[in-house]
Write a structure and sequence with these properties.
Largest sheet: 7 strands, mixed
Number of helices: 15
Bound molecules: pyridoxal-5'-phosphate
Strand content: 5-15%
Shape: globular
Number of strands: 13
Order of helices and strands: HHHEHHEHEHEHEHEEEHHHHEEHEEEH
Helix content: 40-55%
Oligomer: single chain
Length: about 400
């Protein structure tokens, strides 16, 4: 069942529309329990929208069957097969089951790739703004993180357009970097990278021999019909020996707590991954319930995801319209993901997310946690019910009007 953006006709839409902050607090997710009191949780990348009925049924079935132990090879094999099928059917990427490994989560696969596939003492390039752990994980694994702030050409003419700074990425590669983290779709700016951008990255990777860790966890969440996620590994210029792709059903189907992500690799990257002790250890750690939920999501949860994407699109419109009337807050609205990136620098606040949490009762992520260059920005999570989204916009608008009574 697919709903139109604004009709509110399906039962799922009615359920989402009726969600209240009170219900969310009673549910007690991290998003809603981290900040006590009358605070709307709009920060960590969890959705308030539950998960697909097929996923719920798979979890119930696992409980019924008592399948809550260690991973049986048959379940692991089925999850790897389903991942490969999903990539083939959705993104036209001809992945074979043998190229897919299961892992508990995408971040542990990044750690394993850094420790086992980058030279000791080399650095890791992270284009920013970046999902916060990308900035910490290199250091935890004895590698320097090189933040490359992205470019925003043409900001005067319309919505801000975020682009990788390929020149600085190349300089970092030329200086001996050991890995590039490529997040596509891009958290937090919500962009889907073009084939030209992917090809430019592939050309740099090949010419300097620098591996790419392509984090494609948000690929199921492309919102616009006109945008297409293209896996980095499908570009003819990307070198299989230098390419690791990480993905999971955890963002699209809202199940990050179930701990089952996938790493896809071929060529020498695959051989090295398979031979590596750290990755063998990780393969045994994916959860059986997570694997069963992943199979259900990818096989039978696609209609639910279509409805959720339509709902997030409509929330995005609500947010775009509301923020259009609030001077001092310039949003970058997502083509993919459920995350909006707000440029609040004109408000003149050092910590705008702190300001909005204290003064508006809206908890967002602070821009500077996405890279040193992004003080004055906030990340807003759009995956909530419509009434909560509208209330969030009222609160932000009121707080800005109190801050700048004459400007608004
Ligand atoms: C781009 C990106 N990668 C990875 C993760 C975390 O994935 P996992 O829980 O599988 O480590 C997130 C979570 O928000 C994310 O946005």
């Amino acid at each position: 069942m697919v709903v139109s953006d604004a009709s509110g006709s399906s039962s799922l839409v009615q359920v989402f529309d009726s969600l209240t902050p009170q219900q969310m607090r009673e549910r007690g997710s991290l998003k809603w329990s981290q900040y006590p009191g009358d605070v709307i949780g709009a920060w960590v990348a969890e959705m308030d929208l539950g998960t697909a009925p097929a996923v719920e049924a798979a979890i119930r079935q696992a409980m019924h069957d008592g399948l809550l132990g260690y991973m049986p090879p048959s379940v692991s094999e089925a999850a790897r097969e389903e991942t490969a099928r999903y990539q083939r059917e959705t993104f036209d990427w001809q992945v074979g089951t043998e190229q897919v490994s299961l892992l508990p989560d995408v971040l542990s696969s990044l750690s394993a790739v850094i420790t086992s596939h980058t030279r000791e003492g080399s650095s890791v390039i992270v284009p920013t703004p970046a999902y916060m752990p990308f900035l910490e994980i290199p250091g935890r694994n004895g590698r320097e993180c090189i933040e490359v702030p992205s470019l925003t050409p043409g900001t005067a003419e319309g919505p801000t357009h975020w682009e990788l700074d390929l020149g600085r990425i190349e300089s970092a590669m030329a200086a001996g970097a050991g890995l590039l983290v490529l997040c596509n779709p891009w958290n937090p700016v919500g962009r889907v990278l073009t084939t030209a951008e992917l090809d430019a990255v592939a050309a740099l990777s090949s010419s300097y021999g620098v591996p790419v860790f392509a984090d494609e966890i948000h690929a199921p969440l492309v919102l616009d019909e006109g945008s297409t996620h293209v896996p980095y590994a499908t570009r003819p210029g990307s070198d299989p020996d230098l390419t690791f792709t990480a993905t999971a059903a955890s963002k699209g189907w809202n199940i990050p707590g179930l701990k089952c992500a996938q790493l896809i690799a071929s060529g020498r990257a695959r051989q090295q991954w398979d031979a590596d002790a750290a990755s063998s250890h990780l393969k045994a750690e994916a959860s059986v319930v997570g694997a069963l939920a992943t199979i259900a999501a990818l096989r039978d949860g696609r209609d639910w995801l279509d409805e959720v994407r339509a709902y997030i699109r409509a929330n995005r419109d609500v947010v775009g319209e509301a923020l259009g009337g609030i001077e001092g807050v310039e949003p970058t609205l997502p083509e993919a993901t459920y995350l909006a990136w707000l440029d609040c620098r004109d408000l003149g606040l050092e910590q705008p997310a702190r300001f909005f949490r204290k003064e508006a009762g809206v908890a967002m992520n602070e821009g500077v946690t996405f890279g040193a260059a992004w003080s004055g920005f906030c990340r807003l999570n759009l995956a909530t019910g419509r009434r909560i989204e509208e209330e969030t916009m009222h609160r932000i608008g009121d707080a800005v009007r109190r801050l700048r009574p004459r400007a608004s």
